Amino acid sequence: xxxxxxxxxxxxxxxxxxxxxxxxxxxxxxxxxxxxxxxxxxxxxxxxxxxxxxxxxxxxxxxxxxxxxxxxxxxxxxxxxxxxxxxxxxxxxxxxxxxxxxxxxxxxxxxxxxxxxxxxxxxxxxxxxxxxxxxxxxxxxxxxxxxxxxxxxxxxxxxxxxxxxxxxxxxxxxxxxxxxxxxxxxxxxxxxxxxxxxxxxxxxxxxxxxxxxxxxxxxxxxxxxxxxxxxxxxxxxxxxxxxxxxxxxxxxxxxxxxxxxxxxxxxxxxxxxxxxxxxxxxxxxxxxxxxxxxxxxxxxxxxxxxxxxxxxxxxxxxxxxxxxxxxxxxxxxxxxxxxxxxxxxxxxxxxxxxxxxxxx
Amino acid sequence: xxxxxxxxxxxxxxxxxxxxxxxxxxxxxxxxxxxxxxxxxxxxxxxxxxxxxxxxxxxxxxxxxxxxxxxxxxxxxxxxxxxxxxxxxxxxxxxxxxxxxxxxxxxxxxxxxxxxxxxxxxxxxxxxxxxxxxxxxxxxxxxxxxxxxxxxxxxxxxxxxxxxxxxxxxxxxxxxxxxxxxxxxxxxxxxxxxxxxxxxxxxxxxxxxxxxxxxxxxxxxxxxxxxxxxxxxxxxxxxxxxxxxxxxxxxxxxxxxxxxxxxxxxxxxxxxxxxxxxxxxx
Lengths: 360, 282
Ligand SMILES: Nc1ncnc2c1ncn2[C@@H]1O[C@H](COP(=O)(O)OP(=O)(O)OP(=O)(O)O)[C@@H](O)[C@H]1O
Ligand SMILES: [Mg+2]
What we know:
Chain A is of the alpha+beta class.
């Protein structure tokens, strides 16, 4: 078990692609960090640099305080779980688990003990002598996890380990990974592009965009106070509504509709962010600004798709609320996020923080 | 595809039987001829059932040979052929799997050049380069040796190419997982690539063994000593006697015996061979 530190780490692939553009990230001992972001944002590259599978172009990576830039993957005391599992096809499950230990010349009875122990934890004892070919996807996934656990490394690295599983199994394994990590207390770095997986697993959530950290922090903090429109729209499903708006004299208007007043925000164009579940719509057939287009039923809630002042808006509310073609917004101004219109940075951070403090 | 239509099955069997007959009948004739005295073959009408000279002909050919046509005993020639075929097959596999390993997994200067040079040699079979090769072998004093028989035939672009193609299908993640598990290059080769190429090696072994066993031109050139003759040369020598009719029973016995080792190899390796041709272990 160890902490991992990334100091202004950069990766420039041969050919000039700069996949990681200066990442600083301290990972606490025993922490569970999830790297999330759209395809091509450099998540895998960053993880593989920690693993030692990619060279580090610039900056420094330390595992347990030791600089590992030039260390071989095997000498970094890490274990990795791959998306396609990468089990050794010609070896039995038992041999798959023990291969790394045998290469480290560990004593036989110790290997046997660890394999048994791991198999018991992951409930794969029943097929220790089978080849990977004779296992289901979920079982292979467990074996891949087992191969990491049995090594008792300082850190686990996961690269989208669940994306080859069906939806139901994914949810189940997600829970198991979380519990297992808690129990073993092993520092973990987990890459995914699934924001739900990221939110549920992470102690620390790191949103990457174009090779840079967009925002890092506790999942709920990121959800509640996204620093940028990118984070705001990436986390949460359905995604946050982002409306073009204008502030003048502290009043925020979308088109001609006033949404909030007395904002400590300079005049000019802004982007107003509204979580679909953070407001309600009330029927108002005469003056309602929201025009309902269609409704998606989700069971306990429904999604209302429509337009507000010519901009698309989605609202999520309970099925008990009445519907109408035109509706008005019932909005708590605190639910409103205000971003710089050009660069997408949050403008009202200080104000929002003060609000939170006064509530607490 | 599993079909269950009796008529189709019958038809398929008939076609297969016809095919087998076309291939097997000449072999059967050769066998029959080898069991009759030599006069039977020359009389014009070939008997269709085996005669009673089998034991006599075969033991004579195997253990004493026919000195008049300069053919040593068959067991000696077969041993020579076996050594040559095994060295060629094993040598080819060993060299090409190693070169494919180097080309696929290591970054070294002129790697592409090395690959293309190997590839270009595909266009230069033994027959084309036979004179310079003979010169080299002669200068090295390897005439009339097993080394001279087999080494010049060992380099193989085809096998290198096949192994390269196979290695390219091995997923990168497998290589990386092994690296994280502490396997260096040679251990990766031994623990992953070798076992994974098992079926490919078996298929290649069968093909290359037969290739080596059937070599004719090269052994003819580099061997002058009777004790180094190979069985394929022996057949030719027996059939090609000056001023006399060939002893067909002897020739046919030699042919039949010459077929036995390749057949045994094919039968022994059949399961792996077919696996190597049709499926790749994932
Ligand atoms: N070997 C390579 N050579 C050059 N560029 C590369 C190489 N590998 C990745 N890249 C580039 O680096 C960037 C980041 O790639 P990376 O694989 O880290 O993305 P990712 O965030 O893991 O995406 P995904 O979610 O699709 O897996 C991409 O633009 C990709 O094209
Ligand atoms: Mg990736």
